[in-house]
Amino acid sequence: MRTYDEVVADNITAARARRKLSQRAVAARMQALGFGWRQQIAAAAEGGRRRLTVGEMFGLAYVLETSIEALLDPGPDDKQIQMPGGGSVPRGSVLRSVRGSNDGAVTWLSDDRPDFGSGTWPWPAGDAGPELASDLLLEPFRELFPPPLWEKFIEFLRQSPVIGPVPSTPERLARAESHDDHGT
């Protein structure tokens, strides 16, 4: 299991290799955009030894002629992404987060400790990313919608809050019951 920093570092390395750029060329392009980069900074970013700012991610997407999303997406071999504190979230949850949807894979207990693994329908927390789950669960309905409406329908489902699997801890059970009591 890898950390998200490792995922991003590997994505930067892969994007640079696809463009056939040296680390020195990446640094030069970043400098041309106004970032104070040198070859050593590019190497540290690829090696996961340097955390990037949001602005640097923005710049790198243009330097590497890719998207921010491509730099942030975990690969298909990354089934779980390790959090620094020890918990992990499924790849599908990370993909949904990168694409603008919080699926509830990390919720918070009353003492502000994270509770990992809730997930929501139609893409439960697990190995399947949204593309695979939508293919499996919703593909039979695709022919009912013209393409633009289908995309809106999928986005609506991704935004729909739904309680995840049956709660396994007393706090989760209490939280689920309080949602039911309030009609949410």
What's the short story on this structure?
The chain has 184 residues and is mainly alpha-helical. It is built from 9 helices and 5 strands.
- Write down the overall mean pLDDT: 78
Please describe the biggest sheet, giving its number of strands, its sense, and whether it closes into a barrel.
3 strands, mixed
Separation of termini?
35 Å
Number of domains: 2
Give the tags.
184 residues, mainly alpha, 434 Repressor (Amino-terminal Domain), 2 domains, three-stranded mixed β-sheet, two-stranded antiparallel ribbon, 9 helices, globular, disordered C terminus
What order do the helices and strands come in, and which of them pair?
Blueprint: E1 2-3, H1 4-18, H2 23-32, H3 39-46, H4 54-63, H5 68-72, E2 80-82, E3 88-90, H6 91-98, E4 106-108, E5 114-116, H7 130-138, H8 147-159, H9 170-181
Helix pairs in contact: 2-3
